[in-house]
Amino acid sequence: MNENADFEVKSAVRVLELLELLARSSEPMSLKDIVDELGYPKSSAHSLLATLVSRGYVTREESEYYRLHEGCRNGPGWSSGREALLIAVAQPIMDGLRDAEGETVFLGVRKRDGRVKPVARSISRQVIRFEADLSGSDPAYCTAMGRVLLAFWEPHRVDDYLGRERLIRHTQYTITDRLEIRRILEAVRRDGYAICDQEAYLGGSGVAAPVRDASGEVIAALNVATITQRFENSKVRMIDAIESHARLLSSKLGFKGA
Prior knowledge:
This protein is α+β, with helices and mostly antiparallel strands.
């Protein structure tokens, strides 16, 4: 018998048991399986899951299937507030984009130092695919998400970032000339999307578009990432797809602009 049982709060225990169950499962779990495993009333389990989804700790897939958010399982850690809402709203849109294009989808936000923090992903089901975890941060100057987030940042902060960041040639295609990077950022602002073609990873390419909140501020970047050969064959379609899904996510966050 648990000697601390008298001090446990029932609802808190249920939340922890739910998170622990999802953490042990490598595959999404149905609401029925969760209820059967934990013995909770279906209505209670559904309410707890809805709360965890709204806070960004759990993601809901089609047909009442749930899984622990990758950021909680593998890092960078628990999310909360604005970031949790962003993830909760974005995940079904990301899953839809993955299914439509057959490629991996990422969502990234800007860190205070200007680097990119990946916060959510939807992994391609193809055998040969682009894949990366959610730990750490990525440079902004040579990634599609990073270029989007730099392009729509205050100019003096971009200046500070480019002055601090060590511009490394990750591949033979990486652009490290600061003047050329600034030209690329101008094109991103004009075109509304950014491309990274083997600059961060050899054989990996992708395109990203800005995600705006209700005020119109660019708070994140949505990215489709794939192997270079498939990107070359589908570039125009992927650009259209990332722009339309980024606009959809922005509208879900309250943005009313064009």
